[in-house]
């Protein structure tokens, strides 16, 4: 076939073949899972892996009454794009925000994210508004050896129908050290030292029972 109007057909075919070949040679590039933007509850930027790049984490709704997903991204500084670094499921409970239902009504119980100075992520999980006994949880997430782990655990508990019924705890999961407190009938607080075996636990494998057990609950 002859070239027309300066169009190099053979060169075009060669270029398409080269691009197709490059696509086949890049199977290791992680692909992000499609996300509906209206399902993003909250997002946070920071430097999770300490390379001075701006990374990203998002909490995304799944289905009504199902746990939410947490999506992690790390910046590829050489190519300047966000690379998917994992999705953790079944760890975050919150209220569906009702965006796709008649009479939109935002939820009032949603997880919160904040960045800590050392590059860790603070994840606050408020109690669901059911009953008088409420337990709020806080997790500190850190990036270690290619995995997001739970570096810290904390909680505060209150019974809103009983006087002086409350407790709290905050401990470092990696070292096993921390403190817990429990309110006494007279309104005073007794404090204890938490001293358990330190552990390295991936966020995807975290069980809240580990934290409560360490705190003596």
TrEMBL record:
<keyword id="KW-0732">Signal</keyword>
<protein>
    <recommendedName>
        <fullName>VCBS repeat-containing protein</fullName>
    </recommendedName>
</protein>
<feature type="signal peptide">
    <location>
        <begin position="1"/>
        <end position="32"/>
    </location>
</feature>
């Amino acid at each position: 076939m002859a070239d027309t109007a300066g169009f190099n057909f053979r060169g075009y075919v060669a270029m398409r073949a080269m691009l197709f070949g490059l696509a086949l040679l890049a199977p290791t590039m992680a692909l992000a899972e499609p996300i509906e933007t209206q399902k993003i509850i909250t997002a946070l930027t920071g430097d999770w892996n300490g390379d001075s790049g701006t990374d990203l984490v998002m909490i995304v709704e799944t289905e009504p009454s199902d746990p939410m997903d947490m999506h992690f991204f790390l910046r590829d500084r050489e190519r300047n794009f966000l690379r998917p670094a994992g999705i953790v499921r079944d760890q975050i409970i919150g209220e569906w925000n009702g965006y796709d239902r008649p009479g939109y009504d935002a939820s009032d119980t949603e997880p919160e994210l904040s960045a800590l100075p050392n590059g860790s992520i603070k994840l606050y999980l408020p109690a669901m508004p059911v009953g008088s006994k409420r337990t709020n949880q806080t997790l500190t997430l850190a990036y270690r050896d290619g995995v997001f782990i739970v570096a810290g655990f904390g909680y505060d508990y209150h019974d809103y129908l009983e006087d002086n019924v409350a407790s709290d705890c905050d401990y470092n999961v990696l070292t096993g050290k921390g403190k817990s407190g429990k309110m006494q009938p007279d309104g005073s607080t007794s404090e204890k030292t938490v001293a358990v075996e330190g552990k390295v636990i991936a966020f995807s494998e975290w069980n809240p029972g580990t934290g409560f057990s360490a705190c003596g609950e």
